[in-house]
């Protein structure tokens, strides 16, 4: 397991109550590029990306399309074979590599999540699904200080 600390600020768009974290999107993109283009290479279908927030899922998908536009002109790799989705999308599915983008990084926002049981920081079932989908490598991108407010993440 790799834990990559990111302290970026989570944000919302006016049209959505969902959250996203720009710095985590950048880090997810970097990991995907390493996995696809550096030795040993992984196939896109070996990679899954999980985030508890729909807006983060959308931002990650957009970033992956940028990889396609920037690097895949002459390479026979279909970036669309990378599965990106919520925890529920991965129930019953596994991938060799799972990247989790936790999004939340500010303590004041976590209070709202805990109050309304949002995200997967306080949901044991969603937490379990998220961290058990990887066959070989689990990469967690997030703020450990925030995640450690939960007993499961702290362990």
UniProtKB/TrEMBL annotation:
Signal peptide: none annotated. It is found in: Cytoplasm. Gene3D superfamilies: P-loop containing nucleotide triphosphate hydrolases (3.40.50.300). CDD domains: SF1_C_Upf1. InterPro entries: DNA2/NAM7-like_C, P-loop_NTPase, SF1_C_Upf1. Keywords: Cytoplasm. One of its GO terms (cellular component) is cytoplasm. Its main location: cytoplasm. It comes from the Eukaryota. Residues 1-143 form the DNA2/NAM7 helicase-like C-terminal domain. Pfam families: AAA_12. This is MOV10. The lineage of its organism: Eukaryota, Metazoa, Spiralia, Lophotrochozoa, Bryozoa.
């Amino acid at each position: 397991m790799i834990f990559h600390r990111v302290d970026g600020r989570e944000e919302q768009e006016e049209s959505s109550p969902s959250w996203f974290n720009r710095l985590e999107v950048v880090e997810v993109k970097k990991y995907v590029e390493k996995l696809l283009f550096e030795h040993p290479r992984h196939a896109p279908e070996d990679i899954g990306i999980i985030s508890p927030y729909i807006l983060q899922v959308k931002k990650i998908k957009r970033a992956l399309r940028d990889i396609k536009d920037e690097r895949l002109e002459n390479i026979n790799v279909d970036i669309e074979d990378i599965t990106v989705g919520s925890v529920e999308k991965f129930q019953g599915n596994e991938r060799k590599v799972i990247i989790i983008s936790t999004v939340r990084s500010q303590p004041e926002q976590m209070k709202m999540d805990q109050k309304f049981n949002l995200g997967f920081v306080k949901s044991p079932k969603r937490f379990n699904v998220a961290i058990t989908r990887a066959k070989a490598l689990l990469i967690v991108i997030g703020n450990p200080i925030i995640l450690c407010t939960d007993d499961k993440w702290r362990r």
